[in-house]
Amino acid sequence: MDKVSRLPDELLVKVLTFLPTKEAVSTSILSKRWEHLWMWLPKLEYDDQHYSESERKRLRCFIVRSLPLHKAHVIESLRLKLSNSHYFKPQVIKWIVATAVSRNVLELDISCSSYPEKLNILPSNLYTSKSLVILKLGDWILLDVPPMVSLPSLKTLQLQEVAYSSEGSLQRLLFNCPVLEELKVDIWKYDNTRKFTIIVPSLLSLSLFIPFDYGIDGLVIKTPSLKYFKLRVHSSSSHYCLVEHMPNLIEAYIDVEFPNIKSLIESITSVKRLEICLEVLYEEGIVFSQLEHLKLCRCKDCTSNLLVRLLKDSPNLRVLDLYEMIDHYYCGIIPWNPPSTVPACMLSSLQIFNWSAYSGVPGERDLAIYMLKNASHLKTATIWSDECDIPELEMLKELAFSSRASTTCEFMFD
Amino acid sequence: MTKEMFTLKSSDGFLFVVDEAVVHQSVTLSPMVQDCAGREYPINNVTGKILNLVVEYCKNHVVVDGGDSSSSSSSGDALKKWDDEFITQMDLSTVYDLIMAANYLIIKGLFDLACQRVADEIAACKDHEEIRATLGIVSDYTAEEEAEVLKENEWAFD
C-alpha cells in the first residue's frame, strides 16, 4: 500500500526540502516515481569538509553531471563549502557557480578553504546576474570586479576576508548594487586595499571590520539611510575617516582604536542604542538627543572622562551599561573624575544602571557610589562583581549603605 | 464586543465553530471573514478527522501569534513543545492528510511542521529498504535499474 504516494509530486518535493541535499538525492532509489523528484529541489547544499579524497571524487562527478540537468526553474539557493583540493580545482568551482548563475540563482553562499592563496572561482556572469539577491563569499576568494558590473536585485552582500583584486574594486562593486540593503565586510589582514569607500544610498545595515595592525590610509562612509551600524577598526593608525550623517540610525556598535573620530561621532548623533569603545575622548559640542540605551566598554584609560561626556551629551538616556566588549581586557584602575554638575539625564531620565565585572577598587567604588547618590530617577541598579582582591561582602556593604538619591531604587548585587 | 464566530463544514458533514483568529491563520479562509459569519462554509476536500486537528493546531497558535510579536522565549519554547507532541503522536497516514489539508488551506506553520515530521522519519531510517517500509513505497525498479541509479548517484549513497 503506497501511502505516501497519495501526495502529489509537488508536495513530495516540499518534504524533500526539509532534508539535507544528500539525503534528498538518496530518495532516488525508492521507486521510479522518486528517481527524479529531488531534481526539483529549489535549494542545494554541498559540503565536502571531512570528506576523504574518494568521497570528493564522487561528489564532483555527481555535481558536474547533475547540475546542468537540474529541473527546478529557479535555483533559489546554492551553498558550497568546498576545499580547494585535487577534485575541486578553481576551474571546477567556477563552472559550478557559472551554471547556477545561468539558472537564475537567488542566493549564493560560497566558502572554500585553502591555504592563503587567492581563489579565482568567481565567473564573469556572476557580476551581471539579474536574479541574485543574496551573495556570501568566504575566505580568500578573489573578487576581481570587471568593468561591466550590474547586480540590480542584490540586497544582501557578505564579504568575509575576500581578496580584492585592486584598490577601488569594492567601491566599484557597491556602486552597481542599486538596491543593496545589508552589507557585511570583514577585511583580510593580508589584503592590499588601503582606502575603503562605502557609498550606498540604499543601505540599511552595515558591518565593517578592519583587523589589528592593518595598514589603512582612509575610510569614507556615505550611507544616509542606515539603521544598523557596526564598525570595528582595530588598526590604530591616524588615517582620515569621513562619515556622512545618518539621520535614521537606530543602533550602533562602535569599537575603534584610531584617533580621528570627529566625523564618525558626528555621524551617529541620531542613534537610539549605542555600544561603544573609543581610544580617545571625542570633541565637545555633540548631542545624542535620541540616545536611550548606552553600553560603554570600560577597558580604556579614557573611560572615566568618556562616561562623563556621554552622560552630559545624552539628555534622554534611560539605560546605562558598563561592561567589557568581547576580547577587550581591562587591566588598570579607572580614576573617577566626577563632573562639576550632575549630568541632566541623571536627574530626569536615567532609570537603569548595570555594571558587569565590577572589582570594587577605589576608582570603581567612587563611580558606583556617585551613580547611586545622584541618579534621582533610578529604578534598578545591578552590579555583578568580578573575582578580585576585595571581598564581595565588603563591596556589597560599601554600596548598599551609600546614600541614594532615588528612594524607589532597587539595588541588586551579584 | 462579541467575537464573530464562523462555522466550517468538513467533506463528511462535521461542523466546527471557530472564531476569527483561527480563520485568519488560513490564507485560503481569511477572505471569508468578510461575508460568511453565521453561514456554514464548506471545506470539500478535508474530512472531519483532519479538520479537527487543523482547528486544534490553529486554536493553540492564536494565543501566541495573535498577541504581540515580542512574546517571551519561554512561551515560544512551550509552543514548540506542544507542536512536537502534537505531530509526533500522529501516525504517518494522518500526517500525509494533514500536509494536503494545510497545503490547501495555506497554513504555513502547520504545513512545515507536518513536512518536517515526514522528513525526520526518512532521516531516521538506516537504509532505503527501511524508508520504503516506513513510507509504504513499493519499488518498481528491476535489479539492473536499481543498480544503475545507485551508480549514477553514487555520492548520495556513501
Shape of chain A: elongated
Number of strands of chain B: 3
Q: Which residue ranges of chain B are poorly predicted, with pLDDT under 50 across at least 5 consecutive positions?
A: none
- Number of separate helices of chain B: 7
Query: What is the terminal-to-terminal distance of chain B?
Result: 62 Å
For the sheet with most strands of chain B, the description reads:
3 strands, mixed
Strand order within the widest beta sheet of chain A? 1-2-3-4-6-8-10-12-14-15-16-17-18-19-20
* Largest interface, chains and sizes: A-B, 33 and 35 residues
Relative strand content of chain B: 5-15%
In percent, how helical is the residue content of chain A? 10-25%
| Structural class estimated from helices and strands of chain A | alpha/beta
How would you describe the overall organization of this protein?
The complex is a heterodimer of chains A (414) and B (158). Chain A is of the alpha/beta class and 414 residues long. Chain A is 22% helix and 25% strand. The termini of chain A are far apart. The model of chain A has no long low-confidence stretch (mean pLDDT 91). Chain B has 158 residues and is mainly alpha-helical. In chain B, 55% of the residues lie in helices and 8% in strands. Chain B has seven helices and three strands, in the order ββαβαααααα. Chain B has helices at residues 20-23, 48-65, 73-88, 92-105, 108-124, 128-135, 143-152; strands at 5-9, 15-19, 40-42. Chain B has a three-stranded mixed β-sheet with strand order 2-1-3. In chain B, a hairpin with a 5-residue loop joins β1 and β2 (15-19). Chain B is elongated and about 65 Å long.
List keywords for this structure.
heterodimer; A: alpha/beta; B: 158 residues; mainly alpha; three-stranded mixed beta sheet
